[in-house]
Amino acid sequence: MKVLVVGSGGREHALCWTIAASPLVDKLYCAPGNAGIADVAECVAVASDDVDALVDFSRENQIEFVVVGPEAPLVGGLVDRLEAIGIKAFGPSAEAAMLEGSKGFMKDLCAKYNIPTAFYGRFTSPDAAREFVHENGAPIVVKADGLAAGKGVIIAETIAEAEAAIDDMLSGNRFGDAGAEIVIEEFLNGEEASFFVLVDGEHALPLASAQDHKRVGDGDTGPNTGGMGAYSPAPVVTEDMVETVMTEIIYPTIRGMAADGHPYKGVLYAGLMIENGVPRLLEYNVRFGDPECQVLMARLKSDLLPALIASRDGVLDNFDLRWYDEVALVVVMAANGYPGDYEKGSEIRGLDAAGAIPDVTVFHAGTREDDGRILATGGRVLGVTALGATVADAQKTAYQAVDAIDWPDGFCRRDIGWRAI
Question: Which domain holds residue 214?
């Protein structure tokens, strides 16, 4: 098959690295890709959110299957456009992608189908939003309704912080159209986990669990980011927990989406908060998590591509995937200043030395190659991933590889996996 992966981050590098190993693939493209992806796929200079150009490229190059990595092209209708011209694509329709494209849509679905989540309100009026905060107190969570690249969630420790976030989003236009409406919701205590399933419109296949580290600083301090590291499996997601999540959260969602006229196909990523053995839904994402995808792909024993095709074709029932028993752990290296302002263009050295360490794979998230040098182009730049018998073993190997990388303009958390250890 000729396969196209859409995206340029660490998630897409992990997907390309995995798909490239499939005997079903004759030719693998990635649009636009990055310096690491170029080692396993042919990168093409088409932006991941340029739906028209992606459709044209797929048609002109006789692509047979498209795997859409990021959320923006899914919400933008890329899968609908490809399917309309007879090109199979992995991912939800634009209507189904609203599970991530609108937090209000997701919360309303939960309310309609009794899916356990935090209580909430939807607001376009700053005054009404402030009133809700005063009624419910702090801590409380303020979210931009639309896509904000992982930065539209503010955990307000005080009422003053919540009011500042409300003003920032609704009056200050910080997130543009994505923040024209906001969701304010109850702050949930507990342990977070990332729960992934492949969905074919009717059936769901659970994947391995993972735990992400959202805050920028050690000990889960500082502002939220797109994710500073992850490990898989997550000890909090036991076999009993998998059954509970499937029964109370995943299947009610799949049935509700179908009943409402937008059946869901693709990967569904449930962000969970688990307290005293009870899971509640924080959010849905309609794509593989980043950096969770990196640890999932590192542990996947089976060929991923047939599973993605089965999801698209509606034949996931009785499908199975096998996983390595080892723990996988990824440490994200980010540019100094992230998630705030950061410089681009600094050189990264030592990548070959890091990648030569046994059981280590360095996934690129924000890089480009320039005359043989690897330069940083994003906030989150590398995902240093290691396998080990335990979380502690995988952590030790991952940080050994981090320390082999020479990049003075970057930083990382030094405690990824701390909850399990």
Answer: 191-313
Give CA–CA dist 72/313, Å, rounded.
23
DSSP-assigned states of every residue in 221-269: EEEE-S-SEEEES-TTS-HHHHHHHIIIIIHHHHHHHHHTT---EEEEE
The 3-state DSSP class for residue 220 equals coil
pLDDT digits (tens, 9 = 90+) for 215-264: 999 999 998 888 999 999 999 899 999 999 999 999 999 999 999 999 99
Q: What is the CATH number of the domain that holds 34?
A: 3.40.50.20
Sign of the alpha-carbon torsion through 151, 155, 156, 162: positive
**Amino acid identity at 190:** G
User: Do residues 188 and 238 make contact, with C-beta atoms less than 8 angstroms apart?
Assistant: no
Tell me the C-alpha distance between 41 and 246, whole Å. 35
What domain count does the chain have? 4
**Are 78 and 54 contacting, i.e. CB atoms less than 8 angstroms apart?**
yes
The letter for the amino acid at 397 is: T
CA dihedral (200, 204, 209, 215) in degrees, to 10, reads 60
Task: Determine the Cα–Cα distance for residues 383 and 215; give it in Å rounded to an integer.
Answer: 16
pLDDT tens track for 81-137: 999 999 999 999 999 999 999 999 999 999 999 999 999 999 999 999 999 999 999
Residues 138 and 52 in one domain: no
- Residue 98 burial (CB count, 10 A): 22
Say what the pTM is. 0.94
Look at residue 194 and give its three-state secondary structure.
strand
Q: Which residues contact 240 (CB under 8 A, 6 or more apart)?
A: none
Between CA 95 and CA 399 the distance in angstroms is 41
Q: Is 421 exposed, middle or buried (0-12, 13-18, 19+ CB in 10 A)?
A: exposed
